[in-house]
Amino acid sequence: MTAKVNFFPLGNADTLRIDLADDRKVLVDYAAMRNGEDDDKRCDLPEELRRDLKKAGRDFYDAVCITHTDSDHCKGFGDFFWLEHAAKYRGEGRIKINELWVPAAAILEDNLENDARLVRAEARHRLREGKGILVFSRPERLKQWMEDEGLDFEARKHLIIDAGKTVPGYSMDGPEKVEFFVHCPFGWRQDENTVIERNEDSIVMHATFVEGGRESRLLLASDVNYETLSAIVQTTRKHDNEDRLRWDIMKLPHHCSYLALGPERGVDETKPEPDVKWLFEDQREEGSIIVSPSCPIPAKGTEEDKSVQPPHRQAASYHRRISNDRDGEFVVTMEQPSKDNPKPFAYKISALGVALALSAPAISSSAAAANPRAG
Prior knowledge:
Distance between the termini: 18 Å
Strand order of the largest sheet: 9-8-7-5-3-2-1-16-17
Number of helices: 12
Radius of gyration: 20 Å
CATH superfamily: Ribonuclease Z/Hydroxyacylglutathione hydrolase-like
Largest sheet: 9 strands, mixed
Order of helices and strands: EEEHEEHHEEHHEHHEEHEEHEHEHHEEE
Shape: globular
Structural class: alpha/beta
Number of strands: 17
Number of domains: 1
Strand content: 15-25%
């Protein structure tokens, strides 16, 4: 089979599922945001995911990555998943996690509540057990925490992945046909900061798929702002790793916030900082796709347009313009296939490049298949 990248309309929230060529499934974030009211157009995430798992004949994910512990990335975690750290979360019908991926901040941060607290408890339990987990980044504070817990750091360091490394167990040469490269979080940054910055210490990854000898690339940008994106760009270029920032699909950071581009919102279009401009314009392939996991883009002059919360019209204007310049697409999850009836949708990775997939989960049957995009 060919790989698919699946997106779910959840308002200003993130969940993305990658179905790999060897049938493995990687879930990136989990945010069950639907409130059940008739006018709530967000998809029923547990139902959609269970339907797919049932079709695949399984009750587990090979990996679940919680990029950071904001509610819009982990809401419902304790209701949906089978958790090893407490028997009350191990009931019938819960979905198992073979390997949990978290940033070091999810282990270290204090004063967490609700599902964020459960993510931390599960991650800490698995780290204590020395299995079923990968922790992204190696700040000295993580080593100190492990020592304080009486844990052998050397015996567990294979469970810790630094920025600039690839995730073990995934290779373009293997049957899964994908490689995950870690851009963020930076261990040094967490050592310098006295307070954990949850968004900026989140997981940013670059996935390279290969199919029929052709490479296609996905950039998962979590919720980082322009300063962190600039640091990623500068570090990547310093190590002559520019290919690690080429992309055919971009999961837009922070729900189309202008702060992912630059410090000023702008009147009609946000102006990106130079490093961010290079990432969005020079590193995108012809026909590439930007997906904004967000509410519909507000119209100019509306109350939503005045809000400090994303999505920001000015940022969307920039993304639309540069997408048009490269024969690309700018897609908003809550506008698919229409803002009145959004549906989960997917892009398939094939030897021809990236194309909209119509098999479940997909857009409505009335929509026509897109031509393959450049890869």
